[in-house]
Amino acid sequence: MSLLEVENLRVTFPTRHGPSEVVRGVSFTLGRERLGIVGESGSGKSQTGRALLGLTPPPGKATADRLSFDGSDLRGLSAREWRSLRGQRMSMVMQDPKFSLNPVMPVGKQLMEALRTHGTPRAQAKRASLDMLEAVQIRDPERVFRAYPHELSGGMGQRAMIAMMLVSEPDLLIADEPTSALDVTIQIEVLRILDRLVTDRGMGLIFISHDLRLVSSFCDRVLVMYAGRVVEELRASELHAAQHPYTRGLLNCLPQIDGDRRPLPTLDRDAAWAE
Amino acid sequence: MLDVRDLEVTFTSGADEVRAVRGVSLTVQKGESYGIVGESGSGKSTVLRAICGLAPTSAGHILLDGKELATPRRPDFYRRVQMVFQDPYASLHPRHTVDAVLSEPLAIHRFDRRDERIAEALSAVGLGQGFRFRYPHQLSGGQRQRVAVARALILEPQILLLDEPTSALDASIQAEVLNLLDRLRAERGLTYVMVSHDLAVISHMCERLMVMEHGLAVEELTRDDLRQRRAGTPYTQRLLKASAGYTREAT
Description:
The complex is a heterodimer.
Chain A (H helix, E strand, L loop, with lengths): L3 E12 L2 E13 L3 E5 L6 H8 L8 E3 L2 E4 L2 E2 L5 H7 L4 E4 L3 H4 L6 H11 L4 H14 L5 H6 L7 H13 L5 E5 L7 H18 L2 E6 L2 H7 L2 E6 L2 E7 L9 H8 L23
Parallel strand pairs in A: 3-9, 3-10, 7-8, 8-9
Antiparallel strand pairs in A: 1-2, 1-4, 1-5, 5-6, 10-11
Helix pairs in contact in A: 4-5, 4-7, 5-7
Chain B lengths: L1 E12 L2 E13 L4 E6 L5 H8 L7 E6 L2 E2 L6 H6 E4 L13 H11 L5 H11 L16 H13 L5 E5 L7 H18 L2 E6 L2 H7 L2 E6 L2 E7 H5 L6 H10 L8
Parallel strand pairs in B: 3-8, 3-9, 6-7, 7-8
Antiparallel strand pairs in B: 1-2, 1-4, 4-5, 9-10
Helix pairs in contact in B: 4-5, 5-6
């Protein structure tokens, strides 16, 4: 059975000009695998991720014909029921540690909070937190444990964030641009950590990113989103065979170390893609 | 044109001392585009900030046309050297219109024809006059970065210091902004010093580049070296490999 089944997911925000649908009928299933969701800002990829965790910010509304996680229906859960799932069975790594860590709380305390909220005793939570910091390749876990977020570099902060999300060993991790704020070598290290967790713990991973090339080298499958819709679904290994002009355009507009195309091809958006 | 010799930048807070830049030298010729690549914390942005007078230099010299720069920098320095920052969401005042953002440097430097200059700067970066009285929140990321470029260009500088100018932007918008920077350099004979973590962007934009790690200059390469993968140090090789994408561990 698949870990997550999504059918016809829609996310709508009311605006002065009537409701605006930012996710428009997204369907997919996720097993214990790495699924990439790729798209540019405004494509609805992050809202898709948030809706899966019941985190659609009000007054936005998420609806779906089917939304089931490990066999149980997620639609119509109460806030309390969501809280018992989130952080424990499913969690989310946000894009930027600068904005998603609490700036006035030491990192260790934030890590422990995730466990303490779900009832783990303090001493055990502390040990698990330190272990997790070590698992995400932080060299001096004791120091990072005591440090405030501003005392960490971007890469360290993001690792601390990933540690926080994984300390409760969730079944489903939604990583929303987890490495975009990081430099390439660290990016690869962080991906390796995620990769290992998927392989070792059999976790399902939804990797949301704007970086088509990175996603296709990391994930098993890729959904390409444009204007709230999935315009193409691909096996990651078959990216070069992408059919949709948007996917092809995204691939082409990246500068390459070897290429010398000047000017770079830009993306001509076709109104028909959004239909 | 721009000469940095044995630059050192040290930040102190209490007993802690962070040597962000440790003896970096670089020379940029007129009309050249020079890249600095490195990881977070390598000191690459600090080098730019030190040139601009935004970071304290503890040792070394920064020379513009052979003349040592005064600290704090004089207004005429900023006429010649302007900086574009990484995050257009953070570098534009949220309650200033585009017009206000562009007028301020003109007022500070007592430029004439302000109205026309603003109109020219906007059209140079591919924004119409319709953008002039908008606030940053009414602009997309790419449009904001264009405004940031326009603000830097409005003083008609010779050198632009570009601190990750496209890393906050979507790939298709990045292509547009890179094309814009490319065109402006060709049209105006500008000199660029560009900092980025993205080797592909640097290779696209810069003829020469320096790789930095932990505040040290690891090596200097030309664009051709990069294309031929002629990296002399293991660190640069690692960078090159990492930019090729994720490779699964052999198990």
